[in-house]
Design a protein that fits this description.
2 domains; mainly alpha; 73% helix
Length: 104
């Protein structure tokens, strides 16, 4: 929640603009508002004891695999080109999501 408030403060230092004419701080401000609202909901659920218990760390191999894929993408981007490297990364991510959904 503190991070969201800090981003809101930083975004207001930029010009916010209006929804029809957004300025540089508009989208960071809106993202921070969403973050603060969601954190507030989680805080209220935890305070009232209605939150579901969860593990502090789940399966760490999933985010590690995504980070490794993004690293490989950044390495091969110049040699393969944007279109081919992005298509390979997108196909790998879609395959991974599909495999995780249907493996359960």
């Amino acid at each position: 929640m503190c991070l969201g408030v800090a981003v809101m403060i930083g975004a207001t230092r930029l010009r916010l603009g209006t929804p029809t004419e957004p300025q540089p701080g508009f989208f960071p401000f809106m993202a921070a508002v969403v973050l603060v609202v969601l954190c507030g909901i989680l805080f209220i659920q935890a305070f009232l004891g209605r939150s579901q218990g969860a593990e502090a760390f789940g399966e760490l191999w999933r985010p590690a695999l995504l980070i490794a894929g993004l690293f490989v993408y950044s390495v091969v981007l110049d040699s393969l080109g944007y279109v081919i490297a992005t298509m390979i990364l997108a196909a790998a991510v879609i395959w991974l999501i599909w495999a995780l959904i249907y493996a359960v």
